[in-house]
Each structure stands twice: as structure tokens, then as C-alpha cells.
Amino acid sequence: MFAVVKTGGKQYKVAQGDVFNAEKLEGNAGDKVSLNEVLMICNEGKVSLGNPLLKGASVSAEIVAQKRSSKLIVFKKKRRQNYRRKNNHRQDYTVLKVTAIKG
């Protein structure tokens, strides 16, 4: 059994017991989270599609950790203009473990 959920503007295919990285969600490690934007559930070959979301479906998950990605360097340059800008970025994300799929 698996589901396709939408969180943080991205879609993830998850099954029970999966651990995945999602955009930052509020909460601490050990907190329970319910992802209510379920787009699809497949249960032993029987597919349920939402239009766009499934009513009454949810995915329960547990927050494993709050982390930050590795540093990404942003460098802008215009040649022969003496224009150089260096910046960097680290994105926050949440590590989730799926505990149950209700659909």
C-alpha cells in the first residue's frame, strides 16, 4: 500500500515505514504530524484518485529530525563589468517517518 501526498509544494510517494525529507514543518523530534493533502492511494492494485484531493484520506507521520541541507553557493558574474556577487544558501527540511496510511 502506498500513497502520494503533497506537502511544501512538492509531491512524495510514501508507504508505511518509509523515511523521507520534506520541506520544513513545525514541530520537534518525536511529534506526530498528519498530512491531509493525499492525491492518490494504491491498495493491492486498487487505485483511488482524488480530484484533486481524496476526501477523508490522511497519512500519519512522526518527525524524526529537523535538519539543514548542505551549503549551496550562488555566484553571479557579468564579464568585463567588474560585477561579482557571491552568496550561499542552506535549506531547512524535516525528516519524516510514515506510521500509517488511512484512506
Strand content: over 45%
> From the alpha-carbon coordinates, what is the Rg to the nearest angstrom?
18 Å
Decide which structural class fits the backbone: mainly beta
Strand order of the largest sheet: 2-1-5-6
What integer is the average pLDDT? Answer: 96
Name the overall outline: elongated
The span between the termini is 10 Å
Q: What is the count of β-strands?
A: 10
What is the ordering of alpha helices and beta strands? EEEEEEEEEE
Question: Low-confidence runs (pLDDT<50, min 5 residues)?
Answer: none
Oligomeric state: single chain
How does this structure look, described?
The protein has strands spanning 2-7, 10-15, 19-23, 32-35, 38-43, 46-49, 58-68, 72-78, 83-89, 92-102. The chain has no helices and ten strands. The protein starts with a strand and ends with a strand. The model has no long low-confidence stretch (mean pLDDT 96). It has 103 residues and is mainly beta.
How would you describe this structure in keywords?
mainly beta, elongated, 4-stranded antiparallel β-sheet, 65% strand, 103 residues
